[in-house]
# Entry
Amino acid sequence: MGTDRRYTNVGSPNITTPVGCPTFNDYTAKHELYFDEGLTEKFDFSTDIFQPLLVVYVKTILKTAGDQVPILREIELPYRHEELIE
# Structure
């Protein structure tokens, strides 16, 4: 995203797995959303953001399910933004 826009809302990530791999659930993939690069200021997905945020950070935690190791093909992060007025 360019510097002339700010995030107003970030939705939960949409996960795509490779063909033939099991789908993800809350036990194998967990996502956390943060305001800062140090991952200390956590906030919830799909809540309105009133601060002028130009960058957000998503932490994805993958856990094995028995003998299966999760594999990601793609993570899509839906978001809304607005133009910054100078």
